[in-house]
Amino acid sequence: AAMELPPSHYPANRAAAPAAAFIRYRLGSPGRGLGLRAVRRAGREDIDGVGRKYRLELVLEDILDKDSTVNCTAEVLYHLGNENIAPDVQFTTEGELKNAEEADNTFYNRVKSLQKELVADNIPDSHGHVSPEMEPVHLLAWAASGYVIWQNSTENTQFQLAQIKHVKQVKRSDEYLEFDYTILLHELVSQEIIPWQMTVLWHPQHGVQVTR
């Protein structure tokens, strides 16, 4: 039977983490960072022989413009007995997301015109500060980390991106931009800080892809 969950309780927030991560992987870019502002409603249902499904109503915000929010419904299905399978996430957003086209194209053209590959460390820095020229690099990692979080989430975890330790651009002969990132993920339940490496491809027309 389906049951309502208090939106503020741990199970709702843990299920919201991979949902928000998946959405940000699909819709995020160097010009648009989506973060979870609030869980409005939550429900849970055990499906015999399949797993446990959470139904969520979420509010997402643009992390650079907190006044820009979008409502969203999501379903997260955790598969029974197998924690190595990523949860299934379905979502719909209501209303318009902030247009990121101009910011995306500006970043794309800036990186394409660099004489040397972009390299940077510790974003944000120890004071939590991200420089304006590194903000798109940060938002790209924010979107890409959504893939890693979604793929590795279970019912008992709640990951978030803590920091980019290192990022290095990889030269390519095609139109894509490629970056190798070392990121730190904070797992809120165990309080572990876990380093991850990810290779990220991005193009303004084709979105974010984590290839490794």
Q: Which architecture name of the largest domain does CATH use?
A: Roll
Q: Rg from C-alpha positions?
A: 17 Å
Walk across the major sheet and give the strand order.
Answer: 1-2-3-4-5
Structural class: alpha+beta
Examine the coordinates and then state which fold CATH places here, giving the name of the CATH topology of the largest domain.
Nuclear Transport Factor 2, Chain: A
Helix residue percentage: 10-25%
The portion of residues forming beta strands comes to over 45%
Overall shape: it is globular
CATH class of the largest domain: Alpha Beta
What are the low-pLDDT stretches, counting only 5+ consecutive residues below 50? none
What oligomeric state do the depicted chains represent? single chain
What count of helical segments does DSSP give? 3
The helix/strand series, from N terminus to C terminus, equals EHEEEEHEHEEEE
Instruction: Find the count of extended strands (DSSP E, 2+ residues).
Output: 10
Largest sheet, in brief, is: 5 strands, antiparallel
Number of domains: 2
- Report, as a whole number of angstroms, the end-to-end distance: 39 Å
